[in-house]
Amino acid sequence: MQKCPRCGAISYAKELEKNLKVCKSCSYHFSLSAPERIAVTVDEGRFFEYDADLKSLDPLEFPDYKSKLKKDMEKTGLKEAVVTGEGTIGGFPAVIGVMDSRFRMGSMGSVVGEKIARAVEQAATKRYPLILFSASGGARMQEGVLSLMQMAKTSAALERLHRERVLFVSVLTNPTTGGVSASFSSLGDINIAEPGALIGFAGRRVIEQTVRQKLPDDFQTAEFLLKHGQLDMVVPRTELRQTLIKILELHANGGNDDGKRPSAL
Ligand SMILES: [Zn+2]
Q1: Which residue ranges make up each domain of the chain?
Q2: Which CATH class is domain 31-249?
Q3: How far is the CA of 237 from the centre of ligand 1 (A)?
């Protein structure tokens, strides 16, 4: 049994899973792990993972970092906070990256940045559309400036992908904050978010203290950002796969590789 944190409705775990972990009473979106997200996104759950063995080091010898990494690996069965690879969605091949907020709050250390940059490069080489699902607390404080550098690295890799005219769809899930919101997750050709997702750079209190103003209640929600032009769509999880298929289909038929109009036109 699982209790909805928003409306308090109690549902069977199995039923909740069948509904993609969306509350049937109030549509609250429970968070999905990376393996769960992949399973409900790619065709028949078939996924070929990239760089599965890439593991974080402890370059700054930050107290307890190694033991925290080890604990998160045991808890999640993952080596890092992002899983990247390729699969098909509705028959369309795509390079896919999924962050997992259970691992160090989905923070972006060197390995997360590196895996995302490599996935972007794979998408550029194979000319497969790239789809990244973000869920992140921001920078990985235990990696200091090395963590911040990942913002530049992933953004630069995406700029090259953009010049190659390969589609990038960013899917922002709850929460997408800090350095991830300020880098790759906001750089999609199409930026989609799940309903109710918290998306923003700094936290509400920090901003309120800085600007000395009270912020609206829905500030930093997906719906607020959609209203203010920072997102293209807010799509319920139960419609997300179909939406992605539609986008991939439009893209496959619309533009050919060199970005020119199809010769038939
Ligand atoms: Zn609910």
Answers
A1: 1-30, 31-249
A2: alpha beta
A3: 14
Is 7 annotated in some ligand binding site?
Answer: yes
Is the pTM higher than 0.85? yes
151: three-class secondary structure by DSSP: helix
Contacts 24+ apart (CB under 8 A), 118-123: 118/50, 118/51, 118/84, 119/50, 119/84, 119/85, 119/95, 120/95, 120/154, 120/157, 120/158, 120/160, 120/161, 120/168, 121/157, 121/160, 122/50, 122/86, 122/95, 123/95, 123/161, 123/166, 123/168
- The dihedral built from the CA positions of residue 212, 214, 220 and 224, taken in this order, carries a sign that is negative
Give distance in angstroms: CA of 24 to centre of ligand 1. Answer: 7
Q: What is the pLDDT of residues 14-62, one digit of tens each?
A: 999 999 999 999 999 999 999 999 999 999 999 999 999 999 999 999 9
